[in-house]
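INFO worker-7 received task bundle
INFO bundle size: 2
INFO processing item 0
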Amino acid sequence: MTDRKHVLLAPLALALALTACTTTDPWTGEPQTSRAAVGAAVGAAAGAAAGAISGDGSRERRKRALIGAGVGALAGAGVGAYMDRQEERLRRDLAETGVSVTRVGDRLVLNMPGNITFATDRAEISAGFHPVLDSVSRVLDEFDRTVIDIAGHTDSTGAADYNQDLSVRRAESVGSYLISRDVDARRIITRGLGETRPAATNETDQGRRMNRRVELVLEPIVES
């Protein structure tokens, strides 16, 4: 795997892991169950030598680095209230866009289906999806005490190496777009997981559509 596949759009790194959770159908507003997971991230820390980092430890290192850089941290009951407000804004602004919002504890997961975000086999964001990402950017810019883990996923159709590269490029495209809309690059990490973290079976058309996605995981920066 090349270094590019682990590229960090900014000089800090984060890794997150999610388990089975309940999502809200973006069209009906009804709860539905899905499984989404994000694996390891690799990057370089600002002011330090570049190196691979992964797992919960890297997430905590990243938070400490952001706090050290002057990004405010949340504490106590303020964490949940902060994420509540961010969730409310995202659900309101993303209603009927095709992007689902999932709450897992104090984390938020935005699931962007590939069919509305990208053309087939392309990594350039579809022009029609720009307004949706603009809405996401405005919320992320306002709620600036969260880290943003962007992971690209594919179905299992085709060669695994090709799927891995496509997932990386799609995640990078989303990250670059958010940065272009003034989201602090230090908060963002991108990575591709290819076909390794399916949200559904790859044996059906519907399952494959669900697997072709980009996920944004938002986690609060919390005082130790």
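INFO item 0 finished
INFO processing item 1
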Amino acid sequence: MNPSELQAKNGNVADEPSLRRFEVAVIGAGQAGLAIGYFLAQQSRHFVILDRAPTIGAAWRARWDSLTLFTARRYDGLPGLEFPGDAATYPTRDEVIEYLERYAETFKLPIALDKEAQSLSLTDEGFVLGLEDGSSIEADQVVVATGPFQIPKVPVFAAELAPEIFQVHSTGYRRPSDVPQGTVLIVGGGNTGFQIAEELAATHDVHLAVGSRQLPLPQRFVGRDLFWWLERIGVLHKTVDSRLGKRMRERDTLIGSSPRSAKRHGVKMKERAVGGSGQRVTFAEGASLEVEAVIWATGYRLDHSWIDLPIADDSGALRHRRGVTDLPGLYFLGLPWQHTRGSALLGWVKDDAVFIADEIANATKNRTDHVREGALA
């Protein structure tokens, strides 16, 4: 089905404000939502993609200006559209945003922006999504594709630091010129923490507090991109239930960064930050540091509190099997390690997206068969 045919089938949601019933409602217009949208369009589903932001790919817009992906362009395409440019090079944040916008336009996906889902409930007629503006829509099936970057996490002791200290989560960091001069502490030893620390070290006195040991991997190895090797040996397709998958999930991986490379950039390494008071932050080894600025590269937590349904276990973890929940018709997409290491990555989310799309097709067929059998009885 070509783009014009998809547009004719799905229409423009903004042009049909009275249209409130869909086969499928997708929550989130990031890479996961767009990927599942492509497959739903291929199935000729009547669906809508909702997003609370005014633009597509809002999570990418919330990242720092110089962000560069650690996956080459050849691995960054969503289904049906290659990522443009030299396949061996690494795209920037702005290029990803432009690509996501072009993707939505190419396939004329039915996206409704500025539509925040505030509740999700289930009735005898199907799912009901309550929106911020007081309206609601109904859907036979729902895909929650809100991604992993939802609520920024910051340690409790951040509140004990002096009010004059510049503090920002990594989601609020944009460029070095926004950070006051003086001693800057980056807390968090993932790829984000290392990238920001190395950038800031050119203009600031930077310290990086790392709480756990990560596995550093080079971006290129023996003349090949790292992900070429990971694909070749099948690592990216190891599932979360496999022995290797469980080990990989428990240990962070650094791509193209390491304590050694950070030190070469002038970054001073610290152990885990465990407390703070006034202008000083203390570390696990007992040392402390007086700082003028702190950037919390401490990750995010998921927030599904708006879903009024039994979707979590006693520990608060989502109950699902590769995104399929215990509630028929409710799915998740784009979660970290939803099925494999690539589940939340731009170039690999399509694997889970096509799986969920097939589940939706099977559920629709079973429902249709059941109705037909009831009519004939």
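INFO item 1 finished
INFO post-check item 1: The longest strand covers residues 136-144.
INFO post-check item 1: The chain has two domains: 3-150+302-376, 153-214+252-299.
INFO worker-7 idle
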